[in-house]
Amino acid sequence: MVDRLGCMGDRDRSDRQKWDRKYREKGSESGATEPAEWLVAHRDLLTPEPRGRALDVACRTGRNAIYLARLGFTVDALDVSGVAIAWLQEHVEREGLSVHAKCCDLTREPLPRRDYQVVLNFNFLLRGLFAALKDATVPGGLVFFESFTRLQMELPGGPSDPEHTLEAGELHRAFADFEILDYRETTLFPEDVQRTRAIASLVARRSER
Questions:
Q1: Cβ proximity of 104 and 11 under 8 Å
Q2: CATH architecture assignment, domain 52-205
């Protein structure tokens, strides 16, 4: 099931055009298609019933949104690229998954508050969104967050702007008011050295109160 909603917010039109161009150049079958390893590694946290609503911000072509939908969640998936959202819409229509894909500008569009059982933020850093991600999580709900650290700036690929990378311990501090269930800061060294990644990863639960 797909909710076809148009793009909202024109403030960052150039950013949207940049990502649309990148996705067109890569093609729909390129890039990561499997769900994030950090998400899959904590599957046991996602399987208890009932499974309600989930939010995937900066979802790209939806690899993590699709994973959650296959587990039984109803997923709202947001991204600035209309091209990426169109690919996701086509995929979930073919598979009959409950994903509502929407193109939006996360620097402008507010997130719903206290509405989601699971909130995902992968490979995207907008510090002003930390509070909104928390507010979007229901009591007892989970936040999964993973993004690049400053060490990535010394490695090939990934962001080169400090504004787009996490300081040491920053992600842990940002969610100190949640129950942090698992956390790491590490560098992953795959066989393809161009895909070496310095990351911080977190899964945290909002208090039941």
A1: no
A2: 3-Layer(aba) Sandwich (3.40)
Report domain extents, the chain. 52-205
d(CA 75, CA 87): 16
Measured CA to CA in angstroms, residue 24 lies from 28, 31, 79 at distances of 8, 12, 15
With tokens 């093609």, the residue in question is 27
For residue 134, what are the contacts with CB-CB under 8 A and spacing of at least 6? 143, 175, 177, 178, 206
pLDDT digits (tens, 9 = 90+) for 130-173: 999 999 999 999 999 999 999 999 888 778 889 999 999 999 99
Task: State the DSSP code for 87.
Answer: H
pLDDT digits (tens, 9 = 90+) for 27-83: 655 445 899 999 999 999 999 999 999 999 999 999 999 999 999 999 999 999 999
Relative to beta strand 99-104, strand 5-8 is: parallel
Distances (CA, A) of 13 to 4, 10, 77, 106: 20, 5, 19, 12
CA–CA separation, 8 and 10 (whole Å): 7
Neighbours of 3 (CB within 10 A): 12
